[in-house]
Amino acid sequence: MNKQSHAEACEFGPRRLETLRTALEEGEVRLARRDGVVRYPARFQLVLATNPCPCAPPRDTECLCPPNTRRRYLARLSGPLLDRVDIRVRMRPLTAMSVRDGTEPESTSVVRERVRQARQRAAERWATYGLGSNAEVPGTVLRRDFPLAREAIELLDHGLDIGVVTGRGADRCLRVAWTLADLAGLDVPGVDEVAAALEFRDRRSA
């Protein structure tokens, strides 16, 4: 069953949002009852979107909210919850409806085929582990059995050192880097793929 909600993430209460943490991390929902704990499988793709403040201006420069109001609003998305989101992108305001460079976007069929091939590469790689996608692979397996080049790992080490990512975030960076490599038809992620994965997790872009 597909379940969709179109409300902004920050419009939900923090308590509701925090209940997503276990499901995102472990792929199951747990319900505590008198006789024990019931577990239900809950593998899903979560897409969150929110404005930077309650007034939702067309541009940041037009915001009427006091700074503390903006902080309280965005604080509904806690650090531990955001740490379980693989990709975070700050969208820029829409300034024009026309395509200025005149280039034609890729067709859906072209993109679909590239994604299909990437998923097939991942499925073949993880078949011996009983896994079907990069998102399912434990960080210990990635680090132990599929180590990256020293230059790529140094990027992650630097991110950990300056606080751009946590340990959990570093593992998620590795999964995203492998996905980027699969999309590009590469056998192993390199510096560019790890750098892109880190950019997607940069707290400043959240």
The first-to-last residue Cα distance is: 30 Å
Structural class: mainly alpha
Q: What is the strand arrangement across the widest sheet?
A: 1-2
What radius of gyration results from the CA coordinates? 19 Å
When the domains are counted, the total is 2
Residue windows where pLDDT falls under 50 for at least 5 positions? none
Q: Based on CA inertia axes, which overall geometry fits?
A: globular
The number of E-state strands comes to 2
Which percent range describes the beta-strand content? 5-15%
Helix % is 40-55%
What does this structure look like?
This protein has 206 residues and is mainly alpha-helical. It has 2 domains: 9-82, no CATH class; 108-205, no CATH class. The chain has helices at residues 14-18, 20-26, 67-74, 79-82, 108-126, 139-145, 150-162, 167-184, 191-201; strands spanning 28-33, 36-41. Strand 1 (28-33) and strand 2 (36-41) form a beta hairpin.
Compile the SSE list and pairings.
Blueprint: H1 14-18, H2 20-26, E1 28-33, E2 36-41, H3 67-74, H4 79-82, H5 108-126, H6 139-145, H7 150-162, H8 167-184, H9 191-201
Antiparallel strand pairs: 1-2
Helix pairs in contact: 5-8, 6-8, 7-9, 8-9
Structure characteristics:
206 residues; mainly alpha; 2 domains; 9 helices; 45% helix; globular
Condensed summary:
This protein is mainly alpha-helical and 206 residues long. It has nine helices and two strands; from the N terminus they run ααββααααααα.
